[in-house]
Write a structure and sequence with these properties.
4-stranded mixed beta sheet; 8 strands
Length: 130
């Protein structure tokens, strides 16, 4: 068994598509209309085009919005992405205007940082486990 797909709830799929592809560097995998305005919109790592997909899911359900917004209010990231060098990625993303809520922080063998994805979520980046 392996993880094939996971999702995050976003306020605006077009804005999320831009942020996750143009800023973070993910690649769009699927973009299928669902209903009148929503899409089945997934992105993947360019390093693993057949790897785990991230669904940029509309936050239509009230419980999903409450869950997501409460995590943000408490400063808790909804997802974590692995990077080779957190400090370098922090500098790159800051240069692109990304707002961080936690600067790089070393916690034992792992360094983490947390940013606002502009779509309603906090996302943590962390050094890849070795």
């Amino acid at each position: 068994m392996k993880i094939h797909l996971t999702s995050i709830f976003v306020d605006d799929q077009a804005k999320a598509e831009h942020f996750y592809t143009e800023v973070l560097g993910f690649v769009k995998k699927h973009d299928v209309p669902v209903g009148e305005k929503d899409r089945w919109l997934t992105v993947v790592s360019p390093d693993e085009p057949d790897g785990t997909e991230l669904l940029l899911e509309p936050v239509g359900h009230p419980a999903a919005r409450t869950y997501r917004d409460t995590l943000v209010e408490d400063g808790i990231p909804l997802a974590q992405f692995a990077v080779d060098d957190v400090r370098a990625e922090y500098r790159r993303l800051r240069g692109l205007g990304v707002r961080f809520t936690q600067e790089p922080l070393e916690t034992g063998p792992v360094t983490t940082a947390v940013f606002d994805d502009t779509c309603g979520n906090l996302i943590q980046i962390a050094t890849k486990p070795r």
